[in-house]
Amino acid sequence: MAFEHLLRPGRIGPLQLKNRLMFASHATNLCDQSGCISDALIDYHARRAKGGVGLIVSELLLAATEIDPLRITPISLRADDTRFLPKLATLTKAVHDNGAKIGVQMSPGAGAQALGGPWLPGSGVRAVSPSGVLAIGVHPHATNPRPLEVEEIKRIVDLCGIAAANIKQAGFDLIELHAHGGYLIHQFLSPYFNKRSDEYGGSLDNRCRFLLEIVAAVKSALGSDVALTVKWSAEDFLPGGWDTAQSQVLVKKLEAAGVDGLGVSSGVHGGKIPATPPYFYPEGTFLPFAGPIRSVTKIPLYTSGRLDDPELAEKVLREGKLDFIQICRGLIADPDWAEKVATGRSEDIRPCLACNYCRNQLAIGKSIRCSVNTAAGQERALDTITPAKQPRKVLVVGGGPAGMEAARIASLRGHKVSLCEKNKKLGGMTLVAGVHNERITRLNRWFVGQVGKLPIELRLNAELSPALMKEEQPDVVIVATGGRFIKPDIPGIGGDNVFSSSDLLELMRGGVLDKGILLRTLSPLAGTIATPSLVRMVLGMNYPIAHNVAIIGGQFAGCALALLLARKGKHVTVIEESPKYGADVEGNTLDGINEEVAAGRVNFLTSSKALEITRQGVLVMTASGEQRLLEAGSVLVAVGLAPDPGRWVEDLDDKMEVHVIGDARSFERIPNAVSEGYMTAFGLA
C-alpha cells in the first residue's frame, strides 16, 4: 500500500513539516528533580527524529510554578526559569540534527489534579484550582485545593508568556498548550470544576477566558515564526461538565485568536476514556470526537489514541478526518515507524501492544520503558546493536517471545543461531495471550517474520535433549522454554465444564481436548483453523463457554479474561484468594475492569477460596468463612505459570555457557520475556 497522505509534507502555521506524523507528548521520568531534562531524554527524542517522524512534541513543561506549586507528575519538567534553557537548547539541536522539527507541550499547571508534591519543601502547600473542586481519582497532594484569586490568574497568564519566550529562545518550533486531561486549563473550561461567579466563571465566554488570555500571551511572546496549537478534551464525560457543543464554540474562539492547529483528546484522568486507551479500546479511539470539530474548522487538526496502524492512519488522512496523525506508544515501540512506512517496509514495524506498560512504569516511579522495545529510554546504552567480536554458535531453545527475541538479536550481532521449538508453531504463550489482546498476535507475527528474514536455522518439533546437544554442538545455550500452567489442587478440576489456558493452548496447537464428545472430535482440527480471532468470536457464543462463568484467579490473567468475557456479553464471577484483585494490572486497564464491575457484568469474591468444582459450579469459602455454591455453567482457571526450564537443563555440561530466561526463569509476562531475550543476546561476548 502506498502511504502518500502520511508522507506528504504539511504545514501548521509557520511550521513546514516533511510528513504528517507527530510524536505525541508524554511523560518519561527522564529528567531530574529540579525539572531539568537529562541526556537520556535528549537521546530518546533524537532517536525518534532519526527514525523519520516529522514533528516531535516533547513532554510537558510547566510554566507557572510560582502560583501552581505542585508537580503535575512526581518528576516534571519546567520552562519558567532561564536556568533550564541550555539543556532545552541541546534537545532542540539534537532533534533538528536528526531531521525532525520539535515542539513542546506547555502547561500553566495541574491544578487539583497534581500527582506530585511541591517544588519547594515545606508544609501547608495546597493545590490551586478554579473553585476548590476535587479532581477525579486519587491525588494525595491535592486533597484540599484552594480557589485562585483573580490576581493570581493574571499572574499565571503573564508567566505563560515568559515561559513561551524561554521556549522560543531554546529553539523550539512549536508550542502545544496543554488543555486536556482534566488539568488546570480544563478545570477552568468545565462547569463541573468551575463554579466561579467572576469574569473567569459562569458563562462559556468567561470559562474560556483563561485559555484565551494564555493564547494571547503566548502568541505575543512567540511572534510569527513559532507555531502555536492547543490540545484539549472535546468532552470530559462528567455530570454537567464539558461537552462537544461547548468545544465547537471554543474552536471558533481559538481560530479567531490565531491558533495554528488543534489537537483533540477526550476525558479526564481517572474518568471515562483515558488519554492512553488500553488495548480493549478501538483503534482510533478519539476519532469520533474529531468529527464534530472538523465540521466547524479548517485549520490543521490532529489527534492520537491508537492510530499507529499505518493503513488506518493513511485512511484517516485520505478521508480528510485529520490533517496530521499523532502517535505516542507506537513510536516508543518502534522509533523507525516512519522510515519503515516510507521505504515500503510497514510489515517490519514492531507493533505496540497498547498494554500501557510504558505508562505503568511511570506510575510506579520508574523511567519510561516498553514491553516490546527494550532500548526505549535507554537508547545510548542499548539501541545500537554491535557485531560480536567473535561470532559463536548459539542454540536457543524455546520459540516464545523470549526465545525469538534472543535469536533475533544474536543473529543481528553475527552469531550463528539455531532456534528450536518443541511444538509445530512458534509463539509460546502469545498464542493464548492473543485471544484477549489482538496486538499480541501481531507481535507474534512480527517475531516470526523477523526470524524468517534472518539467517536463523529454525527447527520445529525439536526439544532440548542430549541428542540435540550432540547434533548442534553449541558454544552457548539460551533456554527459553517458558513456564507450565499451574493446576490448583481442587476436587473436580478435571471436569468437562472446567477449562484453563493450558487447554486453550493445547487446542491451538492441534492437541486433543478431552472435554466432552464434541470437543474431543473437533479439537484435532483446531490446530489448523483455530486463531486468536476465531477463539474470541467463539467466546461470544454459549458453547463451549456458558453464559454464567466462574474464574479461579483474580490477578492479571483472570482479570483480562473477565474483561474479555464481560464484553462478549457473559456474566462473570472471579474467585481470588488474596484481599485485592488486579494487583498487577495497569491502572487504565483496571479502570476498564471496574467499569464492568459497576455495570454488574463482573463480580469479584476476594479473600475467597475454591473448595470444589461440580457440574453446577464452584463451592466457595467466602471472606466471612461461609461456604456457598457459586452457580456457573463453565469454570475457567487462570492462576498463572510456574517456571519450567525443562528436564535436560541440569544435565548440561558445567563448562557450557547456559542462560535461562523468560518464563523458564521467572513468570513476569511479555515485557520481562522480551527484555531478557534482548539483554542476554546483546551481552553475549
Just give the CATH class of the largest domain: Alpha Beta
Number of extended strands: 28
Structural class: alpha/beta
What's the number of domains?
3
Main sheet: strand order:
3-4-6-9-10-11-12-13
- Rg, Å, rounded: 27 Å
Secondary structure elements and pairings:
Blueprint: H1 4-7, E1 10-12, E2 15-17, E3 21-23, H2 39-50, E4 55-62, E5 77-78, H3 85-97, E6 101-107, E7 128-129, E8 146-147, H4 150-169, E9 174-179, H5 184-189, H6 204-222, E10 227-233, H7 244-256, E11 261-265, H8 287-294, E12 301-303, H9 310-318, E13 324-327, H10 329-333, H11 337-342, H12 357-363, H13 379-382, E14 393-397, H14 401-412, E15 416-421, H15 430-433, H16 438-453, E16 456-460, H17 466-472, E17 476-479, E18 483-485, E19 498-500, H18 501-508, H19 517-529, H20 532-539, E20 548-552, H21 556-567, E21 571-575, H22 587-598, E22 602-605, E23 609-614, E24 617-621, E25 627-631, E26 634-637, E27 641-643, E28 657-660, H23 669-682
Parallel strand pairs: 3-4, 3-13, 4-5, 4-6, 6-9, 7-8, 9-10, 10-11, 11-12, 12-13, 14-15, 14-17, 15-16, 17-28, 19-26, 20-21, 20-26, 21-22
Antiparallel strand pairs: 1-2, 18-27, 23-24, 24-25
